[in-house]
Amino acid sequence: MNKETNILKLHYDIHEPIDAERFLNSFSSFVEEYSKYINRRKDEISEEDYRLYISSIKDNCILVDLAPAADILGSLMSVRDHLTVLMDFAKYFDDIFDYFKSAGRKDQKDIKAEDIPYNKTSVQHFRSFCDVVKNNGQINISVAEYEDGEVKARFEYNNKDIQTAQIGAEKSLYALDLKSDVDYRNVVMFLQQSNTDDSKLSGTTAEKAKIAEISDKPLKVFFASEGDTMKIREFKDKKDINLFRIPFVVNVNVQLNPNGNPICYRVLSIVDILMDEIET
Asked: Which of 246, 250, 234, 231 is nearest to 279 (CA)?
C-alpha cells in the first residue's frame, strides 16, 4: 500500500456476536452512501480515483480501514486533496446521523415526506447501517492523515443514539411509504413470528412474515396503520385460531438491502383476510 495513504476508518466497536447478514448490509450501505456522495461531485473529482478499497482489517472488534483508489494506485491529484474529500464525506454522514437522531426523539412531531431531505434509498441505507448495533456497543467513523496517522476527524455513535437514529429512519420510511406508490398489491402474507404485544408501526420488532410472491424467507414486518395492528391483535387474542395459518391479502412496500434483496416489509393496508382458506 502507498505509504501516503489517507484512511477512512469504520469501527464497529461491538463486544458480542454480530449477525453476518446485518453486518454486511450495514457495511455495504455505508459504502453505497459514500459512492453516491462521490457521484454527486463527479464534475470536480474522479469517481475512479475515489473508489474505496479495503486497505486493512484489524482485530479490534471490527475495524476496517478504507482508502481511495488513487491513494493506493496513484493519481495526479495530491494526497491532501483526497484527505479533504474523506473529511467532507465523514461530516456529511454525521449530518445524516444527526438528522435521523433528531427525527427519532420521542418529542419529535410526525414527519412529513416533503420535509425529508433524503430519498428513500438513502433512508434505507442509513437504517441498515444502524441495524447492526442492538444491545450494546457503538460505531465510530474517523479520517486519519497519511503523514503521521493523525486523526483529523472523528465521529462516535453510541448504542442509545444509534437506536434513536434508527427509529428516526423508520419514521421517515413510514412517511415516504405513505406518499409513494405501492410496491406490491393484493399479495398473500402469512405471519411466521409474532410480537407478544401489538404489531409495530416502526422501531424494533420481532414480528416476521412470509410473502411467497416476493421472497421465500420470513422477513421483518411493520404496519403503516394502527387499524391493521388492531386486526392482528384481535387474532392474537383468539385461542381457537392459529394466527400463523391466516392468509392476509395485503398491499406492501419492500425494503431492499444494497444488493437488491428484500429485508423488510411495510404493510400499507390489509385488503382482505381469507378466513375460508385458513390452513388446517
From this structure: 246
